[in-house]
Amino acid sequence: MRFKTSIFAIIIIAFTTASFAQQSAMEQFNEAMQRAQELQRTIELPDSNNSAAKAAAHSVANQVDSDEFLQRLNVEKEKIRQVLFNGFAGETGEVKEGEQSLVGQLPSDEKIFILFSETVPKETVRTYVRDLDLLADNKIALVLRGFVGGVKTVMPTMEYIESLIVKEEECKKTIQKQCDIYNAIIQIDPLVYRKFGVQRVPAFIYVKGAVLHDADFSIGNENNLNSKAIYNILYGDVSLNYVLDRFADEFGSDYLKTMAKRINSGGKLN
């Protein structure tokens, strides 16, 4: 029988066997995904009358297709992506308690998620990406529910993400030409949607007390988020600085106000 699983199950193998010496980041990813797709078409398990073996094979397939497996693999993919795209999902230092209002960043136990999809106007999403680049805060992330076109079509998703992060939208990376990109975190995490019950986008989630029991897993994993955490959700095609102002008013947060001012002033603190 053919082992019907997603290409995620072999994407790591594809990356480790691809040669990245003189290729652009997107070309490297393209080659890796082509290798993954070829491997997927050839992976088969022999027919067997062993009912236990069949049950085990189906169990593995179900685990591979689960949200939890995809999220764990997404963590590993994120590490690879950071190497390939050189700052695609940039990191910033942690902000000490009491200094948030000075630098305009979230404290270490707070997070903001901007949930979106390809149905949201691209210029709206690109504005969010530019705003995240200005804030330079790795505790704020854009989150897709899943891959554009479905789980077996990864390349359209990567091409879509590339179109969001390039500063000149028409720029296409080649060996001879590199595009300037915005430094913003973009994640694929269906568990965030399920955890907070989000059914429409754009949606903005602000979480206080975002302490995770296992930082390698999604905030949406069952029992991973501190039970004392509180959150609020705003919906609508609105600006990020508007959202920050709304959250700031609700929670009495000076640093959220400062973050909104940073966006309004093009990244500068007045």
Can you describe this structure?
The chain has 270 residues and is an alpha/beta fold. The protein folds into two domains: 8-85, no CATH class; 100-264, Glutaredoxin (3-Layer(aba) Sandwich). Helix content is 45%, strand content 10%. It contains ten helices and five strands. A five-stranded mixed sheet has the order 3-2-1-4-5, with helices on both faces. α1 crosses α2 (25-42), α1 (8-17) packs parallel to α4 (67-85) and α9 packs antiparallel against α10 (254-264). The termini are far apart.
What topology emerges from the helices and strands here?
Elements lengths: L7 H10 L7 H18 L8 H14 L2 H19 L14 H4 L6 E7 L5 H14 L4 E5 L9 H12 L20 E3 L1 H7 L6 E6 L21 E6 L4 H12 L2 H11 L6
Share of helix, binned: 40-55%
CATH architecture of the largest domain: 3-Layer(aba) Sandwich
Strand content: 5-15%
- Give the CA-CA distance, first to last residue: 65 Å
Rough shape?
A: globular
Order of helices and strands: HHHHHEHEHEHEEHH
Classify the secondary structure makeup into a structural class.
Answer: alpha/beta
Determine the number of helices (DSSP H or I, runs of at least 4 residues).
10
**Which runs of at least 5 residues are low in confidence (pLDDT < 50)?**
1-25, 82-93
> So what's the oligomer here?
single chain
What key attributes describe this structure?
270 residues, globular, 2 domains, Glutaredoxin, single chain
Write a brief caption for the model.
The chain contains 10 helices and 5 strands, in the order αααααβαβαβαββαα. By secondary structure, the protein is an alpha/beta fold.
